[in-house]
Give the backbone structure.
Amino acid sequence: MTVSVEVKGSLGEPASLNVYPYGPAFFKYQCMRYDMVNEVTEEDSGSDSEDLSDADIELDLKYIKSLESKDWKDQDHYRVLGLPNLRVESSVKDIKKAYKFMVLKCHPDKASQGNTKVDEEAFTCIQKAYEQLCTVEGKRAYDSIDPEFDDDTPNITEHNKQNFYDIFGKVMDSNAQWSMQKNVPKLGTESDSIDKVNDFYNFWYDFKSWREYSYLDEEEREKAECKEERRYIDKLNKQERLRRKKEEMTRMHELVNRCYACDPRIRAFNEERKRRKIEAKLAKQEAYKKELEAAKLQKEENERIAKEQEAQRVQEAKEKAEVEKKERQKQNKLLKQERKKLRENVKSHNYFNTNEDNIVKSMENLDLLLLSLTIDDMKKLKLSK
């Protein structure tokens, strides 16, 4: 069999298109890559508990019948679907199973027993609850403003300091559900090291939350009559979400600050650091004191040695002067003796003068000569008698 195909027209010019990665598979890969909570896979979202059974679903018929469809955003969706305790820990799979259970029990047309049958108004609320929680995005939006979640942060009081691990442990664990990262560190115990405690506070001070507030949008863009009005509504909603997100980050920061202020480990570490600082200061002062004492003792020793040296020098000078004095006295005595001998010798020769008139002059000259001669000079003189 032959098929003929007639081609009309021609191909256009090649065009360059930007292709962006998108879709659940890519997003799941990014979550794994950056250690973020997996937001996409329905079966994996929520808790890691066993499959939900019918016995785990709590049918609160009285609460469901009291609801009005016009106020569906104010109702407790988890309570409506019979999961008041599981709440954020539930998976999308759990939501679907709970909704199926509710349909079988409460549908106006399919209810097997009259006492579980609800009217169209109440069943609409069940449908609204399911529509909100059956997708990851819708479930996250409602979980972010879950009315059962306690946003209060414990105050800095003596009671909270004394019961720190019980009070703040529960609060930190409940707030850990907002973390974009897995493996959120626990508060720990009093035996934790300073490094582990610092790691805990570093994580929480840099806490990244997936919590968002689109569920609380007051303006519904679907009611807009034109594109400009939708843009304006989107702008208002975005501003309000950012404001609430900022308040949430402020709340988280205040929570971590209060936890840090009440943490007995921090007080113990600070006291230990303060004690070590004081000990180091005292040790430094003691070392400085010893250094001053050593310098003082060294100075005193140097002064003592200087005094002893000075006294020894004075003593030596004194002894030397005494020796020199005795030597001078000895020399003077010898000099006198030699002069006397020489004078007597010269006198015995009549001063070597033949003229009696010149004897006085000769005596004067002899005295001058004796004053100019030393002992050695006089000893060299050999006068005959």
